[in-house]
Amino acid sequence: AVYPGTWQNVDRSWARGAEASAIFRVTRSLAIRGAYTKLYTKITQSNTPGQIGEELLRRPRNSGSASMELTPKRWTLIAGGRFVGERQDEDYVFGVNRNPGYQYVFVNASYQATKNLAPFVRIQNALDQQYQEALGYSALSCTATGGLRITW
Fold first, then answer.
1. What does the alpha-carbon distance between residue 9 and residue 62 come to, in Å, rounded to a whole number?
2. What residues pair up with 19 in beta bridges, in sequence order?
3. Sorting pLDDT into bands at 50, 70 and 90, what band is 76?
4. Cβ contacts of residue 50 below 8 Å, gap of 6+?
5. Contacts for 2 with CB less than 8 Å, ≥ 6 apart
6. Rounded-to-integer distance, Cα 134 and Cα 99, Å
């Protein structure tokens, strides 16, 4: 018997798609980056017959990103956005099986203080968007992370 909220393994599936990315260097210290993925998936064999022919969970058909990178002297400043399209998912409480797409903005900065030390800060979801990467689990609100990168 299959119980709601339990996982069933997929025996076989396939995934096909294409990815493209580009970097346009505007000046020596300014670059614009972009990436896009188109992905098709299908379950071909499963212990749960209702899954056959469905898309794999949490694999968006469309996703991508765009960013601008500024690198004057020892600084690196990056601002951009990421988008993830609608995708198959499963919410066993409300019976929802599609997760809507979302987008968010990020900002990263670092400074190469010495040859071996670089403090950095990363801000994810800078505009505090409300979305769920997996149905039923809200993504973090605007989050800042900082640290010190040490290399040798």
1. 24
2. 37
3. very high
4. none
5. 8, 48
6. 8
